Amino acid sequence: MSIKINRTAIAVTIALTSLHAHSAGFQVSEHSASGLGRAFAGEAAIADNASVIARNPAAMTMFDSIAVSGSMSYIDPQIDITAKAKGINQKVSDVAPTAIVPAGYFIQPINDQLAWGLALTSNYGFATDYPKDFHFGTDAGKTSLLTINLNPNIAYRINEQFSIGGGVSVVYADAELNRHYGGLNPSNPSKDLIELKGDTWEWGWNLGALYEVNGDNRFALSYRSQVDLNFEGDFTDYTGGIISDPTAGKTVKGKLTVVTPASAEFAGFHQLNKEFAVHYSVQWTQWSKFKELRATSDQCKDGICLLKEEQFEDSFRYSIGATYTINPEWKVRSGFAFDEQAGKATLSIPDTDRYWYSAGMTYTHSRQLSFDLGFTYLYGKSSEFKESGSTFSAENDAFLTAAQMNYRF
Length: 409
Description:
This protein is mostly beta strands and 409 residues long. The chain has helices at residues 3-9, 33-36, 43-46, and strands at residues 67-83, 90-92, 99-109, 114-121, 126-129, 142-157, 162-180, 192-214, 217-224, 227-237, 250-260, 263-271, 276-285, 292-296, 304-309, 315-325, 330-339, 354-364, 369-387, 390-408.
């Protein structure tokens, strides 16, 4: 197999993070411990703490005093890949690293109608890291991306029932990809093939609406825009066959644009009685906009350093949950979600249908201070896929834990 064939067939999936995303594609949902405990069901409509900004800025009008929240999520993915190519039976375990994902929120009412707030989150990301002796090193090495979203918002209450809100997102993204020779060089499979590093600052926007039927029933609708990550960075060709100058190990400046797609969510919340509430969400993500990954440079042959066509389709996430108030100090919650597969599985993104089984609790220490814990077991359907002419199978599940502190002034 020639290097030229490999450079256009490499599974380059590069818009992917220092954490392993556990929503469809490479979307990140882990924004709060309270939300994790209900599988993020009804998240845009509940507004039990300041983390609601991550889903719906309009819900800030429900706060009558300054509120802050900070959360930390721990993600322990278990992704095992088995190669079933002719003459090769190789299994690699834990190809996605564990991660700690922080998030922070601030809400300040200005008057009875206006409020503003600030969220610091990550909305997209992924990481896979295969061992250097993996036979298919041209398709699977290290792929990672860190995204950070600083999101100021403002909300306005039109009347007792209806509120709207919106904000802008300043997004920082940092990406890295490397590949090695693998089976192309059996005597030295870990020899580097290519490396690509880059970062960028981009921006997007979001809108939300909240309709309060009464104090016990409300509905929410929110939208977050597409953000195009226009990376500029360094491309290193260790083969001497991709960059026009045939010097192995030469580094040139390159560009790559990655689409992080738009998403929309509809959510509902219903307090059925003093103790029991139910909540639900349907989320749509426009994955069909993610069509290809094309890294370019005037110094690469034909102007293309890397090229991979993607096979993604729009997907939905469905979730339902319940909250039970035991007493003024303790609440418990649970939730279930089904996350549709967004794209054809590859070694870099072994995407699949996912099922969330969640539980959590809140301890209210005082009127000002409360604490949340959330737990999720995420089961991913076993899958089999082909890449570069070889067949692979993937086992995919994860354990997620999160803790959060909330304070109202």
